[in-house]
């Protein structure tokens, strides 16, 4: 059973959790907690998942960390998600879409400039050169 009305916390959450017997309680609705809960539920157990934050998903969440900029906290770790989990929990059927990043890193500066590094060595050299030709040349020697 999936219930969303608990975000406000307090007595409503306590009553809902105390109102039934749970086979398992998962603390934390991050991607690992949700995966564990899904496997437990798939195995026939009644599972309660509790999360202290206002959003679920843990490292898979996209949030506005810096005003005006949305970041995916750790979705670059998607490569660590075992294909067996994607298959067994039918995550694609439930909306999972894995996107290949266009860049490996983006670093905004307070003066409006930025450093955008990707997967093309020459483009990375041009980007680094905006700040330091010496560092850009050293980068090329290191790759």
From TrEMBL:
SUPFAM superfamilies in alphabetical order: FAD/NAD(P)-binding domain
For this protein, the record's InterPro entries field holds: FAD/NAD-bd_sf
Q: Which residues form a coiled coil?
A: none
Q: Which Pfam families match?
A: NAD_binding_8
Superkingdom of the source species: Eukaryota
Name recorded for this polypeptide: FAD dependent oxidoreductase domain-containing protein
Q: Which organism is the protein's source? A: Punica granatum (Pomegranate)
- Source taxonomy: Eukaryota, Viridiplantae, Streptophyta, Embryophyta, Tracheophyta
């Amino acid at each position: 059973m999936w219930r969303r009305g608990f975000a406000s916390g307090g007595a409503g959450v306590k009553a809902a959790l105390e109102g039934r017997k749970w086979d398992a309680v998962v603390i934390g609705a991050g991607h690992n907690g949700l995966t564990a809960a899904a496997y437990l539920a798939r195995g026939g157990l009644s599972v309660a998942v509790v999360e202290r934050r206002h959003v679920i998903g843990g490292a898979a969440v996209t949030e506005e960390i810096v005003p005006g900029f949305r970041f995916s906290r750790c979705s670059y770790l998607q490569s660590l998600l075992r294909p067996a989990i994607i298959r067994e929990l039918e995550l694609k059927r439930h909306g999972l879409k894995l996107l290949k990043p266009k860049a490996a890193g983006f670093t905004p500066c307070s003066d409006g400039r930025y450093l955008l590094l990707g997967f093309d060595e020459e483009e990375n050299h041009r980007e680094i050169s905006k700040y330091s030709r010496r560092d850009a040349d050293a980068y090329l020697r290191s790759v």
